[in-house]
Amino acid sequence: MRPHRPRAATPLALALSSAVLLAGCGVLPGGDERRTVTVWLMRGSASAEFVERFTEDFEKEHEDIELDVRVQEWTGIGAKVKKALKERDGDGPDVIEVGNTQVAQYVDEGGLYDLTLESARDLGMDDWLPGLAEPGRYNGAQYGIPWYAANRVVIYNKDLFAKAGITRPPRTREEWIADTQKLNTGGNQGIYLAGQDWYTLSGFIWDEGGDLAKETKESSGDWRGTLHTPEALRGMAFYQRLQALGRGPRDADEEHPAQSGVFARGDVAQIIAVPGAARAIEEKNPGLKGKLGYFPIPGKKAGKPGAVFTGGSDLVVPERGDDHEGAVDVIAALAGKKWQTDLARTMNYVPNKAKLAPAVAGEAGVAAMAVGAANGRATPNSPRWAAVEADNPIKGYMTAVLTGGDPATHAREASRKITRALNLGGL
């Protein structure tokens, strides 16, 4: 049994002080001292009100556990997590929220607890969204438990759609192209798509059966860039067609300039973004309130949305943590139906299982996001993928193609750069 640990009076701890007092001052009848389970959550992932509700409910259900929830900043979190995983610290975390694509890196460097048994037995792993579950799995073992997801949708201007005679969102890629051509008239842009929006390109490549990189042998750690494959080149060809139906810059990404600001001018029919971008659009142009619609990125065939990059968070347990049992209890609750539903409604996230999507059916943008999440993917599950993104050759490849370069030639060069980055400079 683990003794109660004194904790610093963080703002979140103060916010939760009433719940702690109601729990009986940390002592159970009979004199048994309560165990403290420390949870690191990232700023912005859950509201203080959600954390308070969860803490009070969890401590009522688990009378021998007191929760110590500590909010962490995203800036510098990688080094802080690595330190926590390597050093045994009686005041360290028992549960950590990490970005879904970060799990492989932490596993590779050592220090995560294998949750495969609990995932299969208690946590319903067969129903998890693939874009969260797959990056949490490494060398056949499950280390990251899906918590919440977010992905891109198409945000559109309802007035411009109506003026073009478009009465419903497109259901296939070809319908999308045809509608966007109708919208790209009279000074309006059919779509604003920046030339280096590589997350969107990734979805088109996945739809064609391609990928950004592949591991050459199971568990070998030997990776090869695959942008030059026929499937990936078809994905880039579709991106070219769509990007040409607007005036997005061919040498910049969606944040330079911020596409929400461009859309807010009122002459852009569509952008591809997370639904939360609508808030920024409406702040810049209040006249667009009530005039924004959402639909999932269309796929090649009706009835199946296009593939999308799934962002979000997984929950992990340090191998050196003091209370694995308590940590699993916390994760089981946070990843379970009750608190998944609460979190999704509170924060406008996609729940970790497709069957929980009805929880957000009342929010049009989140509902569209949930449809797309069912066909979500993550970046290649290499512990060195961050090295690719640090000097991203995919962006340069896209610009080269969009400005008239030969796709096969530039794709092969970008693949070589990805291969070098994923294999510590090897070819």
TrEMBL record:
The keyword Manganese does not apply. This is Extracellular solute-binding protein. SUPFAM superfamilies: Periplasmic binding protein-like II. Keywords: Signal, Transport. It comes from Streptomyces huasconensis. Pfam families: SBP_bac_1 (PF01547). Belongs to the bacterial solute-binding protein 1 family. PROSITE patterns: PROKAR_LIPOPROTEIN.
